[in-house]
């Protein structure tokens, strides 16, 4: 079996040749990947609303002896994806081709972007953008240790597009005052990539208790927070580095911003004009000589 092809890739490739029940099962697994298949075969069958023999048949069609063999391979992939920065570096350093790092990195990032855009469901993306564009809903955003910068970037620009946008701190002692202002129907945009952070999941759970709708931007292995999200957008992030690449996630953020701007253009245009007037009055930008 080709170890370069992931279980997820193998399952997606098999979809056209599956029976209706097997496709239903595979769709459930892919939507909740990889968490859905880490439990018992009975739990998986019940969640996907299929029989346990259907689970076994799907595993065999994917090239495994049965569910235990499939799950063992999946657990191996999960362990590999939760690597530390040192382990990531060592993995990429082995067998490095004789090309410049600029070329290797660029090739990987372009591949990530193509894979990300190829797997994003347009209806899911549009629904997430519509939630963010709804002026009756306040927006809150938060990221993890690495992705907090992306949440900050999103909030900085979204504040121009529309009002009622708040950046939440990663410090849990700041959440209760923020949650006081979070009402049913508001939107929490949250970023969480491997190694998934407990604080992100805790905030998501608290926000859902307040009646908030969660939009999750995560990696292709999918954060546990997806279990509580109304919409999940997954990006490919691997790179020849000790750290993952944020390029694909940045593109998703900027595309969401562009989509919300388009949906609210009349109001956004008025806000932009007011903002430019304020910049002029404050002489914020240097004028050309």
CATH class of the largest domain: Alpha Beta
Report the strand count: 5
Strand arrangement in the largest pleated sheet:
2-1-3-4-5
Structural class: alpha/beta
Distance between the termini: 66 Å
Main sheet specs: 5 strands, parallel
Summarize the amount of helix as a percent range: 55-70%
Tally of separate helices: 13
Tally the structural domains.
2
Q: Could you name the CATH homologous superfamily of the largest domain?
A: Glucose-6-phosphate isomerase like protein, domain 1
For the residues shown, what is the average pLDDT? 89
CATH topology of the largest domain: Rossmann fold
Which ranges are low-confidence, i.e. pLDDT below 50, for 5 or more consecutive residues? Answer: none
Strand content: 5-15%
Q: What is the annotated CATH architecture of the largest domain? A: 3-Layer(aba) Sandwich
Radius of gyration: 21 Å
What shape does the CA trace take? globular
- The helix-strand sequence is HHHHHHHHEHEHEHEEHH
InterPro entries: Homeodomain-like_sf (IPR009057), HTH_RpiR (IPR000281), RpiR-like (IPR047640), RpiR-like_SIS (IPR035472), SIS_dom (IPR001347), SIS_dom_sf (IPR046348), WH-like_DNA-bd_sf (IPR036388)
GO biological process, one term: carbohydrate derivative metabolic process
GO molecular function, one term: carbohydrate derivative binding
Protein name: RpiR family transcriptional regulator
